[in-house]
Amino acid sequence: MDAPPFLAARLDRGAAPFAVGDVIALILLLTVGTLNHQTVEFLTANPLYLAGVFAPFLIGWVVVAPLVGAYSAGAVETAKSSVPLVIRSWIPAAVVGLALRAFVFRGGAEVTFAAVMLVLGSVALGAWRALYFRFR
Is 4 exposed, middle or buried (0-12, 13-18, 19+ CB in 10 A)? Predict the structure, then answer.
């Protein structure tokens, strides 16, 4: 019997709610961060600005998270397995997002910003998954 393809072992249908929740958590984090630096009036006048903020990190997440196992069978079992998986997935995804932000999209990847994204992204993703298991 052949081993399953690489991605097949890292994608579980039961993890679909996590995919939606992870993206929502990242969008909320990035929106709150943006609102700390821009006004609502600015964002209203520049409707594509937030898309440029979201894009590098969401691209990094979509590319890296399945490869690391954020949506594997282990991610749907318990918070004890899911939270570390999402954090282990976020760290390289954030690095990809920071690189995209620095070289492709507007914005930089200063060390302080990178540290904030790594820490707060880990907290946001880990907290939402922990809450999911607590209240499901």
Answer: exposed
**Is residue 88 a contact partner of residue 68, using CB atoms and an 8 Å limit?**
yes
Round to whole Å and give the CA distance between 127 and 34: 20
* Cβ–Cβ < 8 Å for 125, 90: yes
Interatomic CA distance for residues 36 and 34, integer angstroms: 5
Mean per-residue pLDDT, 9-24 = 92
How far is it, in rounded angstroms, from Cα 5 to Cα 46?
A: 43
Q: What angle do CA 78, 81, 83 make, to 5 degrees?
A: 95
Predicted confidence at residue 1, as pLDDT, reads 47
- 3 vs 11, which has greater pLDDT? 11
